[in-house]
C-alpha cells in the first residue's frame, strides 16, 4: 500500500514540476543540461541533485528539499539512466559528490537531515539527509557506502566535530535501516575491518549499530567475528553483547558465544556486569536453562564486587589527610557498585518473571548445593527475588527452599549477615519479601527456622531506614500477640535484643510495644517477664529514651497490683520487679562499693518496693511470688550497690523474725500432730541453737485460713510457710551478691533442725483423721521444699563439711519422699501447697494434680520399688553423728526391709509442687565421686568415709537431670491451644532453667559426662558382680531386692540422660561441632586415652565401642532398649550412620534373643515390656541389611517354633517371642515389611533385563513374606491380630499396586514365569484377606469392619490392574473372572450369603490355567483351603484373591 501511494505521488508531481517548462526534444534537453553544467562549472552531482529537488547549501545551513524523498530518489535514478554517458556518468556523479564533501562543514550538512523548502501538504515535516536518500538509489549505494566508510578514518581521532556531533557516528547512522542492501556481505566485511582499526569509541558505535545495518543473512558470520573480538577486548563487552542480543544467531553459535561470555565474566567491569547477565539469561532455552544458571551462579562473584571497594575506601581514608573528600569518594564508589548490583538483580528478576524455566532452574541450582561453604550471597538474593515475583509458584518455591536450606544448616546466620552488611541498598528493594519470609519462618514449628527468622528481623532493623524499622517492630508485636509459644518467645527475645542494642531507635516505637500490654492474657509468666523487661528498659533505663511511656507503665502496674484476681496481681508483681530492676540497675563504670543512683531514683525504687510488699501481704501466694521475682532479679542482673544493700539488710531481718526461732526445752501450743525437732546436723545440741519454725507456722496458717473462711475478713499480714522457701532463696542470693558468693552469714541454716511432727505417725496414717492426714502431707511438702532450697543454696560451697551436709540433706529429701508417698496413698483428693508461684493459678494446678491421688493402688504399683529402695538407702547412708532425731529416721527402713513393699503414689504427678532444683545441684554428681579421696586424706573416720552419694540420691538427681534435659534439649512441637481449652503449661517448675540457653545446658552436661560415665561403669560393675555371683543368673537374693531395683533405675536413667544429650538438635549446627567432639571425646577416652586429635568419625567409632561393652549387664529390656537407642543416636552423629548399622542390629538381635527376668526371678511381662519390645524390634528391623530375609526368618522359623511349644513357653531361636508378645512381633513385622516394599524402586520401561530380574526377585520375597504373615491369622485369630492384618494388608496391597504393578507391566514378556508365579502367590494372600473381610462382617465388630471398605476397594483395583497389565502385553485370553464364595477364617462357606451369588461382584484370577506352586508355604495343604486349591488346579472355577459385595 505504501509503495502504491508513493508511486501515485510521483505520478502526480511530475506534471507539476514539468508543466512550467516548454516541451523540448530529449536531445535538446540533454544538451541544455550539459551546457549549463559547463557554463556554471557545476558538477554533475550538483546539477542532478538540484534538478531532483534538493538545493545544496555551502554556508553551514541545512540542505533544502522541495519534493518528497521518494520523488527525489526516482528523479536521480532517471537522470542517471537517461544520461548518454551512462554508466560512466555514475562515476562522474560520485566524483562530484566526493568533491562536494571535501569540506567537513559541507559533509556535515550532507549528513544532517534536509529541511523542507515549502510547507505544502505533499512534503513531510521530517526528511532524511541527502546522503541517506542517495543510499536509497541502488546503482549508487555501494559506491556511496565505500566513500562514507573511507571518510570514517579521517574523523576517527576527533571525539566530536563542530557542534558536538561525532562524524563517525553520523556516517554509521546513514547505513541503518536501509530498505535494501545490494552487497550485504561486502558491507559486513568493511564494517568489521573498520572495527579492527578504529578506536574504542568508534568501535562501540559501529558494533552497536550492526543489528540495524546488516541483513539477516550476515548475522551468523558477524556473530562469530564479534565472539572472537569479545575474547580479545573486554572493554567492548557491553556493545558486543548488545549487538549479539539483537542478532538472529543459530542455537549452536549462541551456546558458543554464551560459553565464551561466561569465561570472561571474572574480567568484566562491574558496571558492565548487568549487560552480561542480561545477555546470558536472554539467550537461554528451556533445555539448557539449568546448566546455564548453574554456570552463571558459579561465575557471578558478587562478593568480589563489593569488598575491594570497601577495602580501597578504608585504605584511602588511612593514607590521606583529606578524610572528608575520601569518605565522599568512598561513598560514591560504594553507591555505584550497589547500583550496578541492583541492575544485575533487575536483569535476573525480569528473566525469572517472564521465563518460568529460568525461575525453576535457579531453584534447582540452589537446591543442588550440598556444602555450607559453597553457598554464596547471590543465592539469598535470588531467593528474595523469586519470592518478590508475583507468581505464586516462585514465591512458594523460594519459601520452601529457604526453609529446606536453613533446616539442613546449609544457609546460616553468617551468610545472612554478610548479605545485609554488603548489599543493604540492594536489599532495600526486596524488604517486603524479606519481611514476609521472616514472618513465615518465625511461625514455623522448627526451632532452627524460628532462630533464622529472628536473624532476618534483627538484620532488617539494624540495616534499613525508619520506615522498615517501624514495619519490623509492628510485625514482631503481631507475633507476640498471636499467642503461639515459640513465635512469642522469639519475638520477645528479638525485641529485648533490639532494646539493648538500639535503645534510641527502639524508643521511637515504644508506643507500638506498649500495645502488647492489652494482650497479656495469652502470655506465660516467663513471656510477661520478658515484656516488662524490655518496656522497663525503654522507659526507665539509664538513658530513658522512652520516658514518654513511664506514666502509662506506672498506671498499668498500680492497676494490676490493686486487682483481687490472682492472675492480674501476678502480672503486676512481675512488672513491678522488672521496673525496680531497670530503675535500680548499676550504671557502667560504677564502683562496686558505692552506688551512683540519685536520691530521687532511690526514693522511687524504695516506694515501689513498699507498694508491692503492701499489695502482696494479704496473700501468701502473692508474697511468695514477690520474693521469687526479687530473687530472680538479683540472680540475673546487676543492681546498684545502694539498692542491693538496702534489700539485703531488710531480707535478713525479716527472715529471722518470721521463720527462725530459738530452741527451747519444749515447744508450747496445741497442734494437730505432736511437734518434734528433727534433722539437726550441728554437733552442739545446746539450748542456744536455732530451728525453722515450720509446724507451728503451718498450724497457725491453717487456723488463719479457717478463720478467714468463717469470718470472711482479710488479715493484714500473715506469715505463711508458703513463703519459707522463696524467702530463703531471696536471702541466699542477697548474701551471695553482698559477700561475693560467701554464705558464712547464713551457713547455720544448712544444719539447723526443723520443728516437724514425729514421723512415727506415718506408720499409722490410716488411723488419723482427714484433717490430720492433710496436715501431715502439707508438712512433708514444706519440709521437702525447704531442703531442696537448702541444697540449691549450699551445693556450690567447697568446704568438705558443707559438702557432707548437702549430701545428708539429699538423703533427707529422698527419705521424706518415701514417707510422703505412703501418706499420699492414704489421703485421696489432697491438694498440695503451691511451690512455683509464676505458673498457672494455684487452684487449677492443684485441682488437676489432686485427681491422680484418688487411685493410689493403680498408680503406685510401679513406684513401690523406688519407695522401698529409698527407705533402704536411708538405713545404710545416714551418718551416725547426726542428732537424735535422725536415729528415729534410720529405724524405719530397717523395719520395712522384712515387710512387703506397700503401694504408694507416684510423686512424678506432684512434680509442679516441689521447688525447682538449680542446675548447679547436679555438680553433686561430680563432687560426690571426688569426695572419697578428699575425705580419706583429711578426715580419717569410717563414719565419714561412708557419706557418699547413695543409690537413692543418685536416682533422685538423675531423674531431675532427665526432666531438665527433656524440657530444654528436646524440642517440643509448637502447637496452638485448641479453642476454649487451656493448654497444660509444661514449663512449671523450670522457671530458672528457662533463663539459660540450650547451649549452656548442653555444655554443662558435657562437663558432667565423665561423672555420668563413672556412674554408668559402677552400675555395670554391680551387675557384673551379681552375674558372676549367681552363675550368670540375674535372680538376686531377697535381701538385695531393693538395691537391685535402685541400681536398675540408675542404669536406665543414665542411659536415657546420655541419649537425650546426644539427641540435642543443636549438635547438627556447625557452631556446636566442637562441643559435640568434646562430648564424644569423653566417651572415647574412657576406652582409649590420649587421642585428642581424632576426626569426628573416629570419635564416634570409639564411643560406639565403649557403649557396646555394657551389653552384657542389662538388668531389664527397658534398659537394653535405652542402650540400643543411645548407640543409634551416637552412630548418627558421625554423619555416616550406615557404618555402624551392623553393630546396632547385632546388639538389638542379642537383646531380642535373651530371656528377660525380673529381680524376683519371674519373666518380664506387661505393657511396658511390650512397648520396649516393640521399639527394640523396630530398631533391629530398621538396621538390618536384608529386612525381607529377617522377616521370613522370624515368621517362618520363630513363629513355627512357637506353635510347637506349650502355652507359656517361648520360641527357641527368639526367646522374647511367646504367645503374650506375638501381637507385638506380628505388628512390627507387617509394619516394617510394608515400609520396606515402599522403598523398592518402581519399574521403568527403560530398565534392562537384569534390573527387572532383581526387582522381581525382591517383590517375590516380599510377597512370600506377606503370604506367610497373612496365613498366620488361621492360627492366631484374635481380634487384635485381625485388626493389624487388615490394616497393614491394605497398605501392602496399595504399595504393590503403586510400585509393583508397573514393574510387571514392563517385565511380563521377558520374565513371564516369574510374574506368573508372583501373582499366584499374591492371590493366596488376597483370598485370605477376602475371607477376613467376610469374618469381620459375620462378627459385626466395628473395629474390624472399619477396615473392610478400603480393603475391598484396593482388592478390586488389584483385579482391574492385573487385567490392564495382561491387555498391555496382549494376553487378554489368560484372564477370566469367576464368583468367589464368601468364607470364614477356617475356609467354611458363609451360608447366609449363598443366595447372593448372583449379586456378587466379579473377581479376578490371572494365569493360564497352570497349577499353583505347592511349595510356597506349608499352609497351602491346610484343610480350610483344600477345596479352593483343587478347583483352581482343575480349572473348573477360578477363585480369586478378593471380592466386594
From TrEMBL:
Compartments annotated for it: namely: Nucleus
Where do the segments described as Disordered lie? 1-33, 854-903, 1392-1445
Acidic residues compositional bias: what residue ranges?
1398-1408, 1435-1445
Q: Name one Pfam family in it.
A: FancD2
What the entry lists under SUPFAM superfamilies is as follows: ARM repeat
InterPro entries to which the protein is assigned, alphabetical: ARM-type_fold, FANCD2
Q: Where is the composition biased (Basic and acidic residues)?
A: 889-901, 1423-1434
Q: Which UniProt keywords apply?
A: Isopeptide bond, Nucleus, Ubl conjugation
Where are its TM segments located?
none
Principal location class: nucleus
- One GO molecular function term? DNA polymerase binding
Gene Ontology cellular component? condensed chromosome; nucleus
Tell me which CDD domains the record gives: FANCD2
Q: Which domain of life is it from?
A: Eukaryota
A GO term (biological process) for this protein? homologous chromosome pairing at meiosis
Q: What family is this?
A: Belongs to the Fanconi anemia protein FANCD2 family.
Q: What's the protein here called?
A: FA complementation group D2
List the source organism. Answer: Oryzias sinensis (Chinese medaka)
Amino acid at each position: 500500500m505504501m509503495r502504491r501511494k508513493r508511486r501515485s505521488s510521483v505520478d502526480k508531481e511530475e506534471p507539476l514540476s514539468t508543466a512550467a517548462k516548454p516541451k523540448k526534444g530529449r536531445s535538446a534537453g540533454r544538451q541544455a543540461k550539459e551546457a549549463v553544467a559547463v557554463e556554471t562549472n557545476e558538477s554533475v552531482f550538483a546539477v542532478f541533485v538540484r534538478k531532483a529537488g534538493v538545493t545544496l547549501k555551502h554556508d553551514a545551513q541545512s540542505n533544502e528539499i522541495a519534493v518528497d524523498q521518494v520523488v527525489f530518489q526516482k528523479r536521480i535514478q532517471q537522470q542517471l539512466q537517461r544520461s548518454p554517458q551512462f554508466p560512466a556518468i555514475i562515476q562522474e556523479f560520485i566524483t562530484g559528490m566526493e568533491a562536494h564533501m571535501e569540506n567537513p562543514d559541507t559533509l556535515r550538512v550532507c549528513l544532517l537531515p534536509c529541511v523542507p523548502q515549502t510547507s505544502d501538504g505533499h512534503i513531510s515535516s521530517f526528511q532524511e539527509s541527502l546522503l541517506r536518500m542517495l543510499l536509497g538509489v541502488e546503482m549508487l549505494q555501494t559506491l556511496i557506502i565505500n566513500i562514507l566508510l573511507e571518510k570514517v578514518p579521517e574523523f576517527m581521532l576527533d571525539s566530536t566535530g563542530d557542534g558536538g556531533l561525532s562524524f563517525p557516528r553520523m556516517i554509521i547512522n546513514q547505513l541503518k535501516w536501509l530498505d535494501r542492501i545490494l552487497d550485504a556481505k561486502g558491507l559486513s566485511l568493511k564494517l568489521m575491518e573498520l572495527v579492527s582499526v578504529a578506536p574504542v569509541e568508534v568501535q562501540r558505535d559501529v558494533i552497536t549499530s550492526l543489528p540495524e545495518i546488516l541483513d539477516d543473512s550476515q548475522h551468523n558470520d558477524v556473530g562469530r567475528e564479534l565472539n572472537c573480538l569479545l575474547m580479545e577486548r573486554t572493554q567492548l563487552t557491553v556493545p558486543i553483547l548488545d549487538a549479539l542480543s539483537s542478532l538472529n544467531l543459530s542455537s549452536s553459535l549462541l551456546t558458543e558465544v554464551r560459553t565464551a561470555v561466561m569465561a570472561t565474566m571474572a574480567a568484566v567491569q562491574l558496571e558492565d556486569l548487568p549487560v552480561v547477565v542480561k545477555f546470558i539469561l536472554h539467550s537461554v532455552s528451556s533445555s539448557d536453562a539449568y546448566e546455564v544458571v548453574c554456570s552463571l551462579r558459579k561465575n557471578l562473584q558478587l562478593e568480589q564486587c563489593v569488598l575491594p571497594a570497601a577495602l580501597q575506601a578504608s585504605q584511602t581514608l588511612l593514607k590521606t589527610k583529606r578524610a572528608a573528600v575520601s569518605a565522599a569518594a568512598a561513598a560514591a564508589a560504594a553507591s555505584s557498585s550497589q547500583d550496578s548490583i541492583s541492575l544485575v538483580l533487575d536483569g535476573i528478576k525480569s528473566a525469572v518473571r517472564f521465563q518460568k524455566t529460568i525461575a525453576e532452574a535457579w531453584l534447582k541450582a540452589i537446591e543442588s548445593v550440598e556444602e555450607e561453604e559453597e553457598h554464596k550471597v547471590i543465592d539469598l538474593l535470588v531467593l528474595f527475588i523469586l519470592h518478590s515475583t508475583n507468581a505464586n509458584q516462585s514465591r512458594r518455591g523460594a519459601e520452601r527452599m529457604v526453609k529446606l536450606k536453613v533446616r539442613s544448616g546449609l544457609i546460616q546466620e553468617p551468610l545472612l549477615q554478610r548479605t545485609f552488611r554488603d548489599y543493604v541498598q540492594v536489599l532495600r528493594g526486596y524488604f517486603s519479601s524479606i519481611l514476609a519470609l521472616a514472618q513465615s519462618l518465625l511461625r514455623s514449628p522448627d526451632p532452627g527456622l524460628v532462630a533464622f527468622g529472628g536473624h532476618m528481623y534483627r538484620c532488617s532493623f539494624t540495616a534499613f531506614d525508619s520506615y522498615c524499622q517501624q514495619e519490623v517492630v509492628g510485625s514482631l508485636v503481631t507475633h507476640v500477640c498471636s499467642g503461639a509459644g515459640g513465635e512469642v518467645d522469639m519475638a520477645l527475645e528479638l525485641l529485648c535484643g533490639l532494646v539493648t542494642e538500639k535503645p534510641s531507635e527502639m524508643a521511637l516505637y515504644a508506643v507500638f510495644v506498649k500495645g502488647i500490654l492489652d494482650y497479656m492474657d495469652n502470655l506465660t509468666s516467663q513471656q510477661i517477664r520478658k515484656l516488662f523487661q524490655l518496656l522497663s528498659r525503654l522507659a526507665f533505663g539509664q538513658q530513658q529514651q522512652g520516658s514518654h511511656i513511664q506514666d502509662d507503665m506506672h498506671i498499668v502496674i498500680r492497676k494490676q497490683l490493686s486487682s483481687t484476681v490472682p492472675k492480674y496481681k501476678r502480672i503486676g508483681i512481675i512488672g513491678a520487679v522488672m521496673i525496680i530492676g531497670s530503675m535500680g540497675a548499676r550504671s557502667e563504670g560504677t564502683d562496686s562499693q558505692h552506688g551512683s543512683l540519685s536520691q530521687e531514683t532511690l526514693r522511687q525504687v524504695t516506694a515501689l518496693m513498699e507498694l508491692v510488699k503492701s499489695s502482696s501481704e494479704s496473700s501468701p501466694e502473692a508474697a511468695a511470688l514477690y520474693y521469687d521475682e526479687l530473687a530472680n532479679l538479683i540472680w540475673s542482673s546487676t543492681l546498684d550497690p545502694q539498692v542491693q544493700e538496702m534489700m539485703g539488710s531488710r531480707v535478713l531481718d525479716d527472715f529471722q523474725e518470721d521463720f527462725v526461732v530459738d530452741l527451747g526445752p519444749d515447744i508450747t501450743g496445741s497442734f494437730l500432730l505432736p511437734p518434734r525437732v528433727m534433722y539437726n546436723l550441728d554437733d552442739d545440741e545446746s539450748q542456744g541453737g536455732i530451728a525453722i519454725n515450720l509446724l507451728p507456722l503451718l498450724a497457725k496458717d491453717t487456723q488463719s485460713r479457717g478463720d478467714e473462711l468463717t469470718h470472711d475478713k482479710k488479715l493484714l499480714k500473715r506469715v505463711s510457710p508458703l513463703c519459707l522457701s522463696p524467702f530463703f532463696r531471696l536471702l541466699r542470693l542477697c548474701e551471695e551478691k553482698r559477700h561475693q558468693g560467701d554464705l558464712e552469714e547464713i551457713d547455720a541454716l544448712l544444719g539447723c533442725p526443723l520443728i516437724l511432727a514425729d514421723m512415727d505417725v506415718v506408720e499409722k496414717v490410716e488411723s488419723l483423721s482427714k484433717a490430720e492426714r492433710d496436715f501431715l502431707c502439707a508438712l512433708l511438702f514444706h519440709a521437702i521444699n525447704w531442703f531442696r532450697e537448702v541444697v540449691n543454696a549450699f551445693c556450690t560451697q567447697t568446704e568438705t563439711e558443707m559438702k557432707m551436709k548437702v549430701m545428708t540433706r539429699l538423703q533427707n529429701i529422698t527419705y521424706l519422699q518415701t514417707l510422703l508417698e505412703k501418706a499420699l496413698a492414704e489421703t485421696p483428693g489432697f491438694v498440695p501447697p503451691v511451690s512455683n508461684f509464676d505458673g498457672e493459678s494455684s487452684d487449677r494446678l492443684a485441682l488437676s494434680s489432686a485427681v491422680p491421688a484418688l487411685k493410689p493402688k493403680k498408680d503406685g504399683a510401679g513406684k513401690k520399688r523406688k519407695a522401698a529402695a529409698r527407705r533402704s538407702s536411708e538405713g545404710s547412708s545416714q551418718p551416725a553423728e547426726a542428732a537424735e532425731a535422725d536415729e528415729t529416721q534410720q529405724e524405719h527402713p530397717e523395719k520395712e526391709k522384712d515387710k512387703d513393699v506397700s503401694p504408694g503414689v507416684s510423686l512424678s504427678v506432684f512434680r509442679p509442687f516441689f521447688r525447682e532444683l538449680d542446675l548447679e545441684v547436679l555438680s553433686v554428681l561430680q563432687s560426690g565421686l571426688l569426695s572419697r579421696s578428699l575425705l580419706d586424706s583429711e578426715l580419717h573416720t569410717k563414719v565419714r568415709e561412708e557419706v557418699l552419694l547413695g543409690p537413692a540420691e543418685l536416682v533422685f538427681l538423675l531423674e531431675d537431670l532427665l526432666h531438665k534435659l527433656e524440657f530444654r534439649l528436646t524440642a517440643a512441637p509448637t502447637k496452638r491451644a485448641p479453642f476454649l481449652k487451656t493448654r497444660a503449661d509444661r514449663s512449671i517448675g523450670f522457671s530458672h532453667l528457662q533463663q539459660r540457653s540450650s547451649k549452656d545446658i548442653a555444655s554443662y552436661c558435657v562437663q558432667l559426662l565423665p561423672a555420668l560415665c563413672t556412674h554408668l561403669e559402677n552400675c555395670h560393675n554391680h551387675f557384673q558382680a551379681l552375674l558372676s555371683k549367681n552363675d550368670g543368673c540375674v535372680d538376686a537374693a531377697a535381701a538385695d531386692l531393693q538395691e537391685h531395683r535402685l541400681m536398675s533405675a540408675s542404669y536406665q536413667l543414665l542411659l536415657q540422660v546420655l541419649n537425650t544429650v546426644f539427641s540435642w538438635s543443636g549438635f547438627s549446627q556447625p557452631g556446636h561441632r566442637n562441643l559435640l567432639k568434646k562430648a564424644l571425646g569423653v566417651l572415647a577416652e574412657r576406652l582409649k586415652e590420649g587421642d585428642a586429635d581424632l576426626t569426628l568419625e573416629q570419635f564416634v567409632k570409639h564411643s560406639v565401642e565403649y557403649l557396646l561393652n555394657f551389653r552384657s549387664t542389662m538388668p531389664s529390656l527397658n534398659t537394653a532398649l535405652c542402650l540400643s537407642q543411645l548407640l543409634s543416636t551416637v552412630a548418627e552423629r558421625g554423619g555416616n550412620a550406615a557404618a555402624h548399622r551392623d553393630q546396632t542390629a547385632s546388639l538389638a538381635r542379642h537383646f531380642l534373643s535373651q530371656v528377660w527376668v525380673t529381680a524376683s526371678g519371674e519373666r518380664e511381662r506387661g505393657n511396658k515390656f511390650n512397648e520396649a519390645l516393640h521399639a527394640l524390634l523396630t530398631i533391629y528391623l530398621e538396621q538390618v541389611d536384608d529386612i525381607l530375609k529377617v522377616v521370613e526368618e522370624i515368621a517362618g522359623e520363630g513363629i513355627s517354633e512357637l506353635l510347637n511349644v506349650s502355652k507359656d513357653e517361648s520360641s527357641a531361636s527368639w526367646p522374647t517371642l511367646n504367645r503374650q508378645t506375638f501381637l507385638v512381633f506380628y505388628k512390627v513385622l507387617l509394619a516394617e515389611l510394608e515400609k520396606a516394599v515402599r522403598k523398592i524402586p518402581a519399574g521403568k520401561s527403560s530398565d534392562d533385563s537384569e534390573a527387572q530380574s532383581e526387582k522381581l526377585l525382591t517383590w517375590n520375597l516380599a510377597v512370600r513374606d506377606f503370604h506367610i504373615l497373612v496365613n498366620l491369622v488361621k492360627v492366631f485369630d484374635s481380634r487384635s491380630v485381625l485388626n493389624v492384618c487388615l490394616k497393614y494388608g491394605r497398605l501392602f496391597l496399595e504399595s504393590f499396586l503403586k510400585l509393583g504393578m508397573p514393574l510387571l507391566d514392563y517385565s511380563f514378556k521377558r520374565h513371564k514365569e516369574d510374574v506368573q508365579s508372583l501373582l499366584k502367590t499374591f492371590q493366596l494372600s488376597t483370598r485370605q484377606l477376602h475371607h477376613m473381610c467376610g469374618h469381620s462382617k459375620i462378627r459385626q465388630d466395628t473395629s474390624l469392619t472399619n477396615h473392610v471398605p478400603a480393603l475391598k476397594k484396593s482388592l478390586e483395583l488389584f483385579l482391574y490392574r492385573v487385567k490392564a497389565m495382561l491387555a498391555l502385553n496382549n494376553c487378554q485370553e489368560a484372564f477370566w473372572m469367576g464368583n468367589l464364595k464368601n468364607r470364614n477364617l477356617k475356609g467354611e462357606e458363609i451360608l447366609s450369603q449363598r443366595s447372593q451369588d448372583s449379586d456378587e461382584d466379579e473377581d479376578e484370577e490371572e494365569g493360564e490355567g497352570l497349577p499353583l506352586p505347592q511349595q510356597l508355604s506349608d499352609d497351602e495343604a491346610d484343610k480350610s483351603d483344600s477345596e479352593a486349591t483343587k478347583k483352581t488346579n482343575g480349572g473348573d472355577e477360578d477363585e480369586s484373591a478378593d471380592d466386594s459385595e
